[in-house]
Specification:
The chain has 247 residues and is an alpha+beta fold. The chain folds into two domains: 3-77, Glutaredoxin; 89-227, Glutathione S-transferase Yfyf (Class Pi), Chain A, domain 2, CATH 1.20.1050.10. The chain is built from eleven helices and four strands, in the order βαβαββααααααααα. α4 (89-117) runs antiparallel to α7 and α4 packs parallel to α8 (190-199). The chain is globular. This is Glutathione S-transferase. One of its GO terms (molecular function) is glutathione transferase activity. Keywords: Transferase.
Length: 247
C-alpha cells in the first residue's frame, strides 16, 4: 500500500512530516503543491483535506492531517530502526511538551511575520475581484482573514508583539540547548524536527535575533541538524519555494 504525502516545500509545517519520512527512510509518494497557484484550495485537494491545508497524509483509505499528528502517526504505524520518539513515558512527555509549544506558540508568531513579509506578495497584483475569488475557495474562515491581512499588511502593533514573542522563543530554545545536545536530553526526536522546521530559516530571516553572537547554542543545533544525511537528502529532492519579501 502506497503512502502519499501532500505538502509544500521543506519549510514550516510541511517540513515536519517530510523530514520524518526522510529520517525514517519510508517509501512515500510525495506530492508537492504550489502555494503560488493556490493548489491547496482546489476542489481535488479539498476532497482529500476539506480544510484546504497541507500537509496531508493518505494511507490507503485513511487521511491524516495536522503536521505533528502525521509525524506521530508515522511513528505508530511504520516503526523503523530509526526511532524519533523516546521509548519511556517521561521522555515522550518531554518530547510532546516541545511539539505542543511549537504548534501553539513558536510557529504562530513566526508565521505571522512570514505572512506579512512574503505571502502577501502572491496576491498583491490581483484585482479586488480576482482576490475575492481566491478567498471564496478557502474553507477556513480564519485563513480568509489571514489572507486579507497579508494583502493589506498586518497592523504594526500586532507585528511588534509577534516579534517580541519570537525574541522570547529563540532565547528559550538557546537557553535549553546550552545544556543539551537535543531538545529531549539524549535523543534526536520529533521535538527537534518540529522546532527545526520553524527555526531553520531564522538565521537568514531573523538574523538580528538568531546569530552566533546572541544565540550560539540555537545556531549550533540548527547547523548540526542541517548536517544530517536525511536533511541533506530532503533539501536535494524536494524543492523549496522562493518568495521575495514585501517591498
Amino acid at each position: 500500500m502506497t503512502l502519499k504525502l501532500y505538502s509544500f516545500g521543506p519549510a514550516a509545517n510541511s517540513m515536519k512530516p517530510l523530514l520524518t519520512v526522510f529520517e525514517k527512510g519510508l517509501d512515500v509518494e510525495k506530492h508537492r503543491l504550489d502555494p503560488a497557484k493556490f493548489e491547496h484550495h482546489t476542489d481535488w485537494f479539498k476532497a482529500i483535506n476539506p480544510r484546504g491545508q497541507v500537509p496531508a497524509l493518505v494511507d490507503g483509505g485513511k487521511v491524516v492531517t495536522e503536521s505533528t499528528v502525521i509525524c506521530e502517526y508515522l511513528e505508530d504505524e511504520y516503526p523503523t530502526e530509526v526511532s524519533l520518539r523516546p521509548a519511556d513515558s517521561f521522555g515522550r512527555a518531554q518530547m510532546r511538551i516541545w511539539t505542543k509549544w511549537v504548534d501553539e506558540y513558536f510557529c504562530w508568531c513566526v508565521s505571522t511575520i512570514g505572512w506579512h513579509r512574503y505571502v502577501g506578495n502572491m496576491v498583491k497584483d490581483l484585482s479586488d475581484a480576482e482576490f475575492e475569488e481566491k478567498v471564496k475557495a478557502i474553507p477556513v474562515v480564519e485563513q480568509q482573514v489571514k489572507w486579507r491581512r497579508a494583502r493589506e499588511g498586518f497592523p504594526q502593533d500586532l507585528l511588534d508583539e509577534e516579534m517580541r514573542k519570537i525574541g522570547y522563543s529563540v532565547r528559550k530554545l538557546d537557553d535549553h540547548l546550552a545544556d543539551h545536545e537535543w531538545l529531549v536530553p539524549g535523543q534526536y526526536t520529533l521535538a527537534d524536527i518540529c522546532n527545526f522546521a520553524i527555526a531553520n530559516g531564522m538565521p537568514f530571516g531573523f538574523k538580528e535575533l538568531v546569530n552566533k553572537e546572541d544565540t550560539p547554542h540555537l545556531v549550533r543545533w540548527i547547523e548540526q541538524i542541517n548536517e544530517r544525511p536525511a536533511v541533506k537528502a530532503m533539501f536535494a529532492q524536494v524543492e523549496l519555494e522562493k518568495l521575495g519579501p514585501r517591498e
